[in-house]
Structures are given as C-alpha cells and as structure tokens.
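Input record (one chain):
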Amino acid sequence: MTQPTPADQGQSGGFLAEIKDAVTTRAALLVLGVLALQLAFITSYVGAFHHPKPSEIPIAVAAPAAPIAEQTAKQLSALPGKPLDPRAVQDEATALRQIHNRDVDGALIVDPAGTTDKLLVASGGGASLSQAVEQIVGAVEKTQGRTVRVVDVAPTAAGDARGLSSFYLVVGWCVGGYLCAAILAISAGARPANVHRAVIRLGALLVYSIAAGLLGAVIADPVLGALPGSIWALWGLGTLVVFAVGAITLAFQGLAGVVGIGLAILLVVVLGNPSAGGAYPYPLLPPFWKAIGPWLPPGAGTYAARSIAYFKGNDITGSLLVLSGWAVLGSAVTMACAAGRRGKAGAAVGSGLPEGPDALPEREAVR
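The corresponding structure, as predicted from the sequence alone:
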C-alpha cells in the first residue's frame, strides 16, 4: 500500500481548509478596515456636498451716508437662516481692501440716488461662493425694486474657470505625501529600526517634497496656465504640504505599523478633502466640515494656494502655521517611535511577516 503524499494530505482538508489556510485573521481585519474606509469616504463626501447651504457669508456694506449702510446691513443680517454676515464699512475703498485681505467675501455698495447698486465679488476665492453671494443679494434687491451690477474684483484665471485648480493642486501634493511615506514602509518596513533610520526617512521625504512642490507649481503655471501668482510662493507651499502629510503618515506608521497608512488616508482623504473648501468654500459647508477644514492639511493648503494666486498672499499666516504644526508633530512622533524601537525593525509591507518586535531575525534588524 502506498503512503499518501503531502499533496494528497493538503487536498484532503477540502476547499474550506484551503480558505482557512490562505486567509489569515490579520488579512481579514485589514480588508474590513478598507471597507470601513470606503464607507467613511462615501459618507464624508456625500454628507459634505449633497446640500450646500450658505451660512453667515461675510460681506461689507458701504453707502455715501453711514446710517444707510448700517440700515442695509441690518436688513441683510435679518434674512431667514442667516446666509450673510454683513458689516457696515466706511466706503467702497474700505470694502475693496477687506475683500483683498480676505476679511469678507463680497461687498454691496449702495447708491441711494439711483436704483442700481454695485456688488463686489471675488471668484478667486471660490466660484460657488461668489455665485451664492450674487443670488442672495440679487434676490433681496429685487424684492425692493432694485438691481445690482456685479463686479468681480479678484477674478479667476482663464485656465481656472471654477477656481478649483488650487484645490486639485493641493490634493495632488497631499497624495504624493502619503504615498511617498507608504512606499518607504513597503520597501523598508512600516516602522524604522532606529532614530538614524527615522532621520533618513524624513530626509528622503524632504527631498521628495522639494521636488514635488516645484514640479506641481510649474505644472499648474506656467505649463497649464491654471493658477497665477508667485511660483516661488507656490513652490514653498507645495513643499510644506507634501512634507506635512508625509510626516504625519510616517508618524501613524510608527504608531500603528501598516495600519498607519489607512489612518493617514482617513485624516487626509476622508476628513480633509471634503472639508478643504475646494468645490464649496467654508461658508457653504455643513458646520462639522466647516469647523475642521482649516485645521487639516488639504484645507490649509487650499486656502493658502488661493491667497497666493488671487489675493497677493494675504491672510496666509494661519494656514502656514497649521501646515507647519502638522510637519513638526509628524516628525516628532516619528522620531519618538523610532527611539522606542531600540534597533528592531518592522517587517516590510507585503512581506507576509508579522510586525511585532521579534518578527525579524537580529541580523535583519538594521533597516
């Protein structure tokens, strides 16, 4: 009688045994995590964009006489649902200055001697936002038997018809940041072996960020002519965006291994992109997205890119501080996690090895 071969023994368990052998608990959990990310993605984007509603859009109101401006501002402030946040200003020059400083998103210049008023808008801050201001103010003027003449004082470039180029540029930079960090995990372990290796990863990320920031700015303008403004300022912004997102991804990987890539996607893509003020600037977003957007890299980057392109870099400091904060925090956490590793490397993503401290032989713990 012949003895059964190993192959015969492997087949005797049947297809169910093969599944149990092929699908590990870790793999099943990772797939469930991907499903959760997918559902979160759908929920966040549909939730943020399905019903844009103007809420307290800041606009200036000017008139030859201060009482007229104050009365008009009071009428606009009393609109149902508070779509506008009007404030009376001294004159048209003051209103125009506030628009360029990004203190307000529009201005109504009242002409009591006639029946046509002037409405100043800035489509460079978002076409959907300027259109919302036009519709709201136009409807109010119509009920009073008046009309408005719209003047765009910060128009978008010819290659940026909807004012979305800045958003898509920043999204591209963000994608590059977390993909670069993910590639480092795939090639050399999700967690760096020691502080020296963490410094090397951060250094490689910085070099990548400088190149990605420059090439992104060049593609946006002058190659495509989609985004005006200082190419040097856009280059610096791009470098900061890419490095901030990459550093926080490295930090997540240091804390959670390969799962950190998913956490970075959750932060940047699921939460950051819908709240960035791209398609719908902040005054048109639901309260939750409006609140978190300026504090996340996509939102801070988009606001800064628009300021550089259309508002001479005004009101950019806050966004740069947010991005710098993410960069510093990500770098610090990455270094701290590496210091705690004590020379034990994590397994490279896709290697099939566990990520625990004893996962690799000692001779491989120098990565």
